[in-house]
Every structure is written in structure tokens, then in C-alpha cells.
Amino acid sequence: MRQLLLLRHAKSAWDDPKLPDHARPLNDRGRRAAAAMHKAINALDLRPDLILVSSARRTIQTLEALEPWPHTPRIERMDALYLASSEQMIQVLNSVPETVGCVMLIGHNPGMHDLALTLGNPARDERTARARLNEGYPTCGLAQFELDQPWWGLLPGAARLTRFLTPSELPDMGQHD
Prior knowledge:
By secondary structure, this protein is an alpha/beta fold. The chain has a single domain (2-8, 23-165), classed as Phosphoglycerate mutase-like (Rossmann fold). 29% of the residues lie in helices and 20% in strands. It has helices at 28-43, 57-65, 86-94, 111-119, 127-135, and strands spanning 2-8, 50-54, 74-78, 102-107, 142-147, 159-165. The protein has a six-stranded mixed sheet with strand order 3-2-4-1-5-6, with helices on both faces. The relative contact order is 0.23.
């Protein structure tokens, strides 16, 4: 069984209107959320073999906040994931080698939310996770999927959503964030 982890980047700063979107960094809240998500990922023993990350500064900084890993995943920064649609992300995932058991993709909305809704199967998804995912995909949200088919065969509705975790649920963040 393969595993797919979809992580939306943490909250970014909008302080400098002259800064291009691609170069926007995380803000303080985003750094706290990413650090809290790092603890949660470790506590859940989620261990991606491959991390595919958008080349945007905020996604790279989100990834950096998830380090160190208890193992050494392969990391690929990809321009193709910057503001990618769900269809573009599926194309990227279809090229993952079959030897890879767990992939983490770090990207952006609205593509990330669309991808999570597209991959899941409401009849098979964990009900509470699906209901919460239907409401939105907040920054630093993490969707965990199980897949029975090979990466090259990843199609809409072919995965099972098993968990949807948001920063507001994490002990280090609380409901105020």
C-alpha cells in the first residue's frame, strides 16, 4: 500500500507589496504552524521517502521547518508545482518511481484542495476527515491518503483519505490560529 501526504504551505507574509508572489516568506504564525506540524508528523510516524516541493520560498521554508527527519527522504524542488492545478500535480505524481512507498507533496491552493477532493473517494474516505476537508484546506493543512494502485495509475477517486490534520488542532497552535 502506498501513502500520499499533501501538505499546503504554512501561512506566508504579505508585508512587502513589491515582493513577487514566488518570493513571499512565511510569517511568524506560519513558522509556528510548520513547527507544530513537524511535531505531529513525527508523532504519527509519517515517513515520506520522497518529498516533492514547489520552488516558492514559502513552500521551501515550510519544508525546512519539518526538518530534521528521522530518516533521509529524497527531496525534489519543482517549478512545475508552483501554483499547480490538481491535474498538473497528478501528472507529477504519475512520474514517481514505483519503488517509492510514501510521497509528500508540498504545494499551494487552490490546486492542493482540488487535488485532495479529487483523489479521495467519499464512499471510502474516513468520514470526519472528508467532512473537514470539504470545508476548506487551511495553510499548513495535511491530508493523508492510502493508495492501492501504482503512481503511474493514480486517477481521481482512486485514493482513500485517512486523515486531515490542521494547525488549529495541534497543541502548540490552539484554536486562535
